[in-house]
Amino acid sequence: MRTTRLASRLAFAPLLVLALVACAPEDEKDSGSAAASSGSACAPAQLKTLAAGKLTFGTDDPVYPPWFVDNKPDNGQGYEGAVALAVATKMGYTKDQIGWVRVPFNNAIQPGPKTYDVDVNEFSITDERKQAVDFSAPYYDVTQAVIALKSSKIAGAKSLADLKGAKLGAQVGTTSLRAITESVKPTAQPQVYNNNDDAKKALQNGQIDGLVVDLPTAFYITSAEIDNSTIVGQLPQPSGTPEQFGLVLDKGSSLTSCVSQAVTALKSDGTLANLEKQWLAGVSGAPVLS
Fold this sequence. Notes:
With 290 residues, the protein is an alpha/beta fold. It has two domains: 6-141 and 243-279, D-Maltodextrin-Binding Protein, domain 2; 144-234, D-Maltodextrin-Binding Protein, domain 2 (3-Layer(aba) Sandwich). Helix content is 31%, strand content 16%. The strands form four sheets. A five-stranded mixed sheet has the order 8-7-9-6-10. A three-stranded parallel sheet has the order 2-1-3, with helices on one face. Helix 5 links the parallel strand 7 and strand 8. The longest helix is centred in the N-terminal third of the chain and has 18 residues, at 6-23. The model is unreliable at 1-32 and 34-38 (pLDDT under 50).
């Protein structure tokens, strides 16, 4: 589940205020796009995207339910596929002005030139990642969960202490992996995989006792992908701000404020809540391990 100096911030603060005002909708009651007029700084014609007049999203290959459907991010299905389409629409882009490229999860949050304008791939917002990329306003609060085969020695675990001796695995570069080392702190070194397909195979083959993924993914894997598997439980949230997913942009991107504005508008008008009900229904109730 990817700074500037104080003096520079102070110097450009008035300009930032003006930019944010320019990005604001003319009428808060308007349920249309965030680009209130063709002259808005957030209108597609005014935004500096990789391809003029087009918004290019990036995501991994493959991508999985419930976040995407049929490994086709451009069909607007699955929670993140639908969020991406809603954000682009709110910004004033039509469906034929939206493009997609495939970017490996770990590559998407590395410093350097990007092949996307916005990446969506269950990226949790972290201070470490903020050193290399920008994040939009958060669009989903998430927890991590442990899944195991029903025959596993940890299937009946009731606490973090019950997982201490387990061999756990997760995808490289994810907060799922960090949750193992920071929340569980097992005696065995966690196993790291390039993608969740490899991690799921390792679980099925008995190479690991448990796999850590975000909770919605855990529900999908245990209900539709791996027979005789179960959710052992959720891992506790880190102290302070809950773990949240955000859209990823290039560091210092001129699009960040406009994308964040669109996300915030979708949250305020209930769109995100409705999409969550549509695509993530039934992904609650797993016990929290402590």
